[in-house]
Amino acid sequence: MTNDLSMQELLDQQEQELSKVKVGQTITGKIIRVNNEGLFLDLNYGFDGIIKIEELNLPKGKYASEVYNVGDEVTAIITKVYHKDGVVQLSKLKLDAKNDFAELEKAYNEHRIITVNVIKNIERGVFASYKTTDLFIPISQLDTKFVQDTKGYVGKNLEVYIKELDTKKNRFVATHRDVLQERLDKEREERRIRIQEEKQVAKAKAKAEKEAHIAKVKSEKETLFNSLEAGQKREGKVTKIMPYGAFVDIGGLEGLVHLNNLSWERVEKVEDMLSEGQEVEVYVLDVDQETKKVALALKDINNDPWELIAKEIQVEDIVTGKVVRTIEKGAIVELREGVQAFLPISELSEERVVKVTSVVNVGEEISAMIIEFKPKNRRLILSIKEATREPEEDYSQFLEVEESLGSLGDLFKDKFKKLQK
Q1: How far is it between the farthest Cα atoms of the chain?
Q2: CA 121 – CA 123 distance, rounded (Å)
Q3: How far is CA 169 from CA 120, 128, 164, 173, 384, in A?
Q4: What is the mean pLDDT of the chain?
Q5: 102, 169, 259, 293: least buried by Cβ within 10 Å?
Q6: How far is CA 221 from CA 231, 235, 238, in A?
Q7: What whole-number distance in Å separates Cα of residue 377 and Cα of residue 310?
Q8: pLDDT (tens digit, 9 = 90+) per residue, 175-203?
Q9: What's the start-to-end Cα distance of the chain, in Å?
Q10: Cβ neighbours around 24 below 10 Å, total
């Protein structure tokens, strides 16, 4: 007796296993060979499976050997069984198509957007592919606007809804127009709501401003106006922001804080310093009895930074500051809050400087010499060139001949006499 099966028994066993394999069945095998004809699989039943190259569903321009390797597992649908040869023919393309159709069916039932690629155009529309399945998009379903030529759609990816899915008639129709229209409708509705809200906000703001104006007109307005003097410090509230300044209510009377009087530093926009409703402390600059207007300042008019710095520095002092802005002709350097100096391009270096930013940049701390200072005119000019210039050395002591040595003739007089002898 032997445990080895006879050849006939092996064939019978193979036939028995092969009889279980049916066309249309999904089966998984391991790749044992890859060539130009396709894939050869071990199906673990004692027989082989073959997936021909045209049934692989390879990406465009790819070879089977670039996608599959020996040892990989592949699942496919059985398309034909050769009992005599013990070979099963498979198709991955049909399995993919089956799975892709299931996805399309789900998208159709759930009214879900899918992305397709347009592969061909005709006069009446375009054909687009969703993986292995082709769909038709009629020209009327390409856009919300009239489409005259369909050529421009070839190669494009389009988001679509499945409009019709009929396997019996092999009719798969999609619409890009419905996707676009849906988004347009949503945008219009959002815009309508936004415009309505903006109108409500504007109406509420206008009403609030009117009520604030009425509240400010009080009987003690004249008394307050007459009590104001230049230099006074007052508490107030910002009532209105304008491009040129801000109006501040100082207790029933409005005064203007001009843009130039917001800070000792340069201010580009009023909003950078103030906001409506903000509580502030201001200084009275001027009271015009004729026009009944009050000029205010947010900056401390009693502590002019130029007057303060004039007590500390002078021409030829070396000072330190931060570069806050560069222009073609030089750089603006802030020495302290409210005091900015000009550093000309010609004063950046002993060498010729073509571009300011090749020497200094915004944000850098620099040291420079004051070469001009006029605090009353708020003018201060700096020089890095002068600050870094090496002091000239005095070589005169090395060029003078000491008197004690006399002239060269005197030094060598005796030697000349000896030579004459």
Answers
A1: 145
A2: 7
A3: 21, 18, 11, 11, 86
A4: 85
A5: 169
A6: 20, 16, 17
A7: 12
A8: 999 999 999 999 999 999 999 999 999 99
A9: 145
A10: 9
Residues near 100 by beta carbon (within 8 Å), at least 6 away in sequence: 130, 131, 132, 133
Q: How far apart are CA 174 and CA 101, in angstroms?
A: 14
Q: Report CA-CA distances (Å) from 185 to 178, 191, 192, 246, 404.
A: 10, 10, 11, 42, 109
Distance CA 256, CA 284 (A): 10
Residue bearing tokens 């036939």: 15
pTM of the model: 0.43
Is residue 101 exposed (0-12), middle (13-18) or buried (19+ Cβ within 10 Å)?
Answer: middle
Is the separation of the CB atoms in 65 and 29 below 8 Å? no
Tell me the three state secondary structure of residue 342. strand
Rounded (10°) CA dihedral 40, 43, 45, 47:
-10
Local structure of 302: helix, strand or coil: coil
User: How far apart, in whole angstroms, are the C-alpha atoms of residue 136 and residue 15?
Assistant: 46
Structural contact between residues 30 and 72, judged by C-beta atoms closer than 8 angstroms = yes
Residue 274 · residue 245 · CB < 8 Å: no
* pLDDT above 80 (res 86): no
Residue 175 tokens, joined: 């619409």
* Cα angle for residues 298, 300, 301 (degrees, 5° grid): 105
Q: What are the residue ranges of helices labelled H in 49-176? A: 64-67, 92-109
> Tokens 């957007």 — which residue?
113
